Amino acid sequence: MSTVTATPAALRLIAEIVADHGPVMFHQSGGCCDGSSPMCYAQGDFRLGERDVRLGEIGGAPFYISGSQAEAWKHTDLIIDVVPGRGGMFSLDNGREERFLTRSEICSVEGPTPL
């Protein structure tokens, strides 16, 4: 199962957003528009689906991913970072001239012993 962590820059931006909006949560849907951008919402402003999976927390904020993306990325650790730019339309990082970005690192997966 994959895990989620955050860079110091992401933790700083989360703290700024929480100071402005209160507790937040993240969702990584893998959608067509902002597929590599995790969306940041005020807690309670995003309705989770039955298949959404909680990967963990970053900066005290719960981080969810769609079930299909969790399956596709099950051997990948997600690293939430910050880059210059505009956030997703409904994400709380929008308008701050920097946005969250998901990076990944392949986990070690043990397979069959080579012949």
Automatic annotation (TrEMBL):
Any one Pfam family match given in the protein's UniProt record, by short name: DUF779
Name of this protein: DUF779 domain-containing protein
